[in-house]
Each structure stands twice: as C-alpha cells, then as structure tokens.
Amino acid sequence: MKSCPRCEASIDDSARFCSQCGAPQNEEAAEELDQYVKRQAKQMAAESGKGSGTGGAGGGGSGDVTAADVFGVAAEELTEREQLWRRGSYVLGYATIVIALTQITNPGAWFLLLGGIAILPPTRRLLGLPVGGTFKREAMAGLYAVLVILGAVLFFVL
After folding, report:
1. What is the pLDDT of residue 147?
2. What percent of the chain has pLDDT over 90?
3. In angstroms, rounded to a whole number, what is the distance separating the alpha carbons of residues 87 and 78?
4. Under 8 Å CB-to-CB from 114, ≥6 apart: which residues?
5. Lowest model confidence (mean pLDDT) among 2-6, 94-98, 107-111
6. Backbone angles phi, psi at 24, to 5 degrees
7. What is the mean pLDDT of residues 85-92?
8. DSSP assignment of the chain, as one string?
9. Helix 80-102 vs helix 107-119: angle between axes, to the nearest 10 degrees?
10. Strand partners, 11
11. What is the mean pLDDT of the chain?
12. CA–CA distance from 26 to each of 16, 20, 68, 148 (Å)?
C-alpha cells in the first residue's frame, strides 16, 4: 500500500484517486479530473446564462441580484481616477473601522464604525440595489463625514 502525497492516507496501489481527500494519484487521473471540472464549469455557465434572462428588472426575487450588482464593474473597466477613489475608500473605510473597534467602549466609536462601513464601495452598491442603481460616491462621502464628525465629537466629549 502506498500513501497519498496530499493527505498521507493509506491507499491501494491501483487507486486512481485518494479515498480520503479525492486527490488524483497519477497524471491520467489528474487529466480526467481536469476535464471533468471543465465540463462542469461549462455546464454551470450555460445554466446560469439561461437563468439570467428570466429574472427581469421587476422580478424582485433574490435570484435577480448578480455578482456584478454587488461588486460593480470589473477593475479593468474603471478609469484611473475611479480606481484611485475605490482604493482610497477601502483604505479610509477599513482604517476607520479598525480605529473604532479599538475604542469600541466609547459611544463615539459606534458612529466611527458606521462611517467606516458607509464609505466602503460594496456598501454604496448594496444600499443602491433597492432603488435600481448605486448611490453617488459623493453622497456616501458626505455620510461618512457626518458620521465621523459626530463620532469624533462624542469620542472627545464623553
């Protein structure tokens, strides 16, 4: 008996796949697994392609929300300025969240936490889904500013 190089489980000498972790044990089995995965991916893509046209804009079901709705356009489609804005929003949002979490016992930290969440790009898109678009980034930056100022005032007053 030999052992699986991936999980070290004992397997039969003639086994093509490990019975514990499913890892292929030779090149032929690896190629077969690769072909199977490609077939399954094509089948899933074909099924999702058929399903995407049936939702419609007014369906309202949870199946109508796609990954593109949540995560927005691909980074390659954004201008350099938009990419800079997105990166800056992530940095500012996560930094604010970390600061708020380190001071969470202070009531002002809760406003900082909400501000940090509000400036994140996925929040802007998710909040805009019910109205059929995304909120303008300037509106979310304004909300961030109001929450952070309120949090900072409470932070230093209390």
Report:
1. 92
2. 21
3. 12
4. 147, 151
5. 2-6
6. -65, 145
7. 90
8. -EE-TTT--EE-TT-SB-TTT--B-SHHHHHHHHHHHHHHHHHHHHHHHHHHTTS-TT--SGGG--HHHHH-S-GGGS-HHHHHHHHHHHHHHHHHHHHHHHTTTSHHHHHHHHHHHHHSHHHHHHHHGGGTS---HHHHHHHHHHHHHHHHHHHHH-
9. 160
10. 2
11. 79
12. 7, 16, 39, 58
User: How many CB atoms sit inside 10 A of residue 30's CB?
Assistant: 14
Alpha-carbon 83 to chain mean position: 17
Is the pLDDT reported for residue 51 higher than 50?
no
CA dihedral 13, 18, 23, 27 (to 10 degrees): 20
Predicted TM-score of the model (pTM)? 0.51
Contacts of 129 (CB under 8 A, 6+ apart): 65, 69, 70
- Six token digits for residue 39: 């077939």
Tokens 């889904």 -> residue: 129
- Going by C-alpha positions, the residue among 103, 114, 125, 98 that lies closest to residue 150 is 114
| Confidence check: pLDDT of 151 > 70 | yes
- Give the per-residue pLDDT at 100: 92
